[in-house]
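Appendix B, example 12.
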Amino acid sequence: MKLEKLKIYVEEKSINGKPIFKIKPIEVLFNPNRIEISKVGWTQGFGGTLNPADQPANLSLELFFDTSLVGVKSSDLGLFASPIPSLSLLPDITLVKDVRDYTKEIYNLTEKKGDLGNRPPICKLVWGTNTVLFQGVLKQLTKSYTRFLADGKPVRATLNCSFEEWESPETTQKKLNPIDDPIRIVRRGETLSSIAAEEYNDPSLWRVIAAANKLDHPRQLTPGQRLTVPPLPADTTT
């Protein structure tokens, strides 16, 4: 089975408030071994009443980079671990690149972009076949260098990233004021998870669409297929 890398699709421009992503994503060097998603659903008010928190979800992950391991066979590394293999496995050290060449693309996602109205770009994290894990803005990043060559060039780094959920105005309106059941035409490569991520900003809600369309085989979508995307019930939580 082919190893799928975590990819980050970056917003290039915005049309009518909807992000348009670059075709070529940022691909991580090594997949993370842990991803955490947190969300506050309710807060306690006066008299013990529970009120919707209306706070965005957050995704946290640590990304590992080591340019001295680039080109080493995955069977020698285990891919998800970070020990230094025997020297016989390593490439010519004089050819090892500066790790900042790999980390700067992600680091720069925290910066404002003038063509986006002086805000950072919206990012879509995808892992596997069109499986959208999260969509949001890189809110915070901590970069650590942990290995250097004799000339001071950093070759190993970790990035601790925290993304804050972004929700389109259409999705917010759909949750607050559901009026009808829109029809969606399936595009090539789409899955119920990717559609739920786009429509509801939560890929785990694919079952809502599957149930509304009485799909016996939810993984078998065909391009051109018509789907009803119902409004979310008021008590649906993500």
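Residues 7-166 form one domain. The chain has two domains: 7-166, 179-228.
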